[in-house]
Design a protein that fits this description.
single chain, alpha/beta, eight-stranded parallel beta barrel, two-stranded antiparallel sheet
Length: 249
């Protein structure tokens, strides 16, 4: 199955749009691993994917993450996304993408700022040959993101915001999804209009950063990326249940 088929199936099976951002931090690797695995087991039937950032990779090592997080997730039929935010030259991007894909990740997040030729072209090649997904960062969820992503750039016949340019590139390159912060519902709506009804939009920032799941969904988000609101809760399962929005809504 392709990444898109896996996440659609998981969303329908578990009746949720929630992607768990499993980004725990701990100076003790054993404690970090145990807590991560405990959270995963407690919410596996309440999420449609897992997003892993560098916290776990740097804290545990890629091999340990592959064996102890990705493999169980696969057993639970929950796809995994590596939040690498690839933004380098082509051969470096390709190496990182191949490494993460071969470790078992189903999709990777990259930055379209790297461009296509000798930038992201080989990332897409690596993904397509393995039936993996590439999600492109379009607008971050933090307050400081506006300084860059809303900056207007001249396109010859007038200026438009950078995030619109990135959206257009993602559509042109046939990305498997876009990342747009849940903290920016008006931006989600514009990106939805530009990208069309079929392009999945993944929205991080629900909960602690102030994004609202229902508001982001109404604006056009397909999936909601939730981290601290779930894994920092005393009852992750209950928190995931309270945040769950069915895919048919």
């Amino acid at each position: 199955m392709s990444f898109e088929e896996k996440i659609v199936a998981a969303s329908a099976r578990n009746q949720t749009r929630t992607v768990l951002a499993l980004d725990l931090e701990d100076s003790d690797p054993s404690r970090l691993l145990k807590r991560s695995m405990d959270v995963l087991r407690s919410v596996k039937d309440l999420i449609c994917a897992i997003k892993i950032n560098r916290q776990l990779i740097l804290g545990l090592g890629l091999r340990a993450v592959a064996d102890s997080i990705i493999k169980p997730a696969n057993d639970f039929s929950v796809p995994t996304i590596m939040d690498a935010k690839l933004n380098d030259v082509g051969h470096t991007n390709e190496f990182m993408a191949r490494t993460y894909f071969d470790a078992g990740f189903d999709a990777i997040i990259a930055s379209p700022v790297a461009g296509w030729k000798e930038g992201l072209d080989k990332v897409f090649d690596a993904a397509r040959s393995r039936k993996k997904g590439v999600l492109l960062l379009t607008y971050m969820s933090n307050p400081g993101a506006e300084a860059f992503y809303s900056l207007r750039a001249d396109q010859g016949n007038g200026s438009i915001p950078v995030y619109e340019i990135l959206t257009n590139r993602a559509v042109e390159w046939r990305a498997d999804g876009l990342i747009v912060g849940a903290t920016k519902p008006p931006i989600i709506s514009i990106v939805r209009r530009l990208a069309g009804p079929k392009m999945p939009i993944y929205s991080p920032g629900v909960g602690v950063q102030g994004g609202d799941a229902k508001t982001a969904t109404r604006a056009g988000a397909t999936y909601l990326i939730v981290g601290r609101a779930i894994y920092a809760s005393s009852d992750p399962s209950k928190a995931a249940m309270e945040l769950r929005i069915r895919p048919d809504l």
